[in-house]
Write a sequence for this structure.
């Protein structure tokens, strides 16, 4: 699985660079756990621009990340989600749980004004 990250102030921008499915979900979560443990963060921007498919394992790990962020009083926002993926996320009832932004810039701006 391919990821890239950068930290701006106390916000981590994490880009997932391929589909998030059962064979990559565990690696994704391990990567995120390491980031959270190694850096004092206030928020994570999850950039899904290059993701075209997410299965139940991927959704489960994103939800686990959301719960982990809540426990640490961190914010999680998701950006650059394709219309198809956004429709799928909303259809399973998770659309109201996550915060979505159309672009990384919009997500960062929303976090920096809070």
């Amino acid at each position: 699985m391919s990821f890239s990250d950068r930290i701006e102030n106390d916000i981590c921008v994490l880009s997932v660079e391929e589909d998030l499915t059962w064979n990559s979900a565990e690696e994704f979560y391990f990567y995120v756990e390491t980031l959270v443990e190694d850096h004092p963060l206030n928020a994570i921007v999850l950039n899904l621009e290059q993701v075209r498919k997410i299965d139940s394992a991927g959704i489960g790990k994103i939800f686990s990340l959301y719960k982990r962020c809540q426990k640490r009083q961190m914010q999680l926002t998701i950006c650059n989600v394709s219309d198809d993926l956004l429709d799928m996320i909303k259809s399973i009832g998770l659309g109201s749980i996550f915060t979505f932004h159309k672009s990384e810039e919009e997500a960062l701006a929303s976090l920096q004004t809070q």
Remarks:
- Residues 15 and 99 are 16 Å apart (CA to CA).
- Residues 3-112 form a domain with the Transcription Regulator spoIIAA fold (CATH 3.30.750.24).
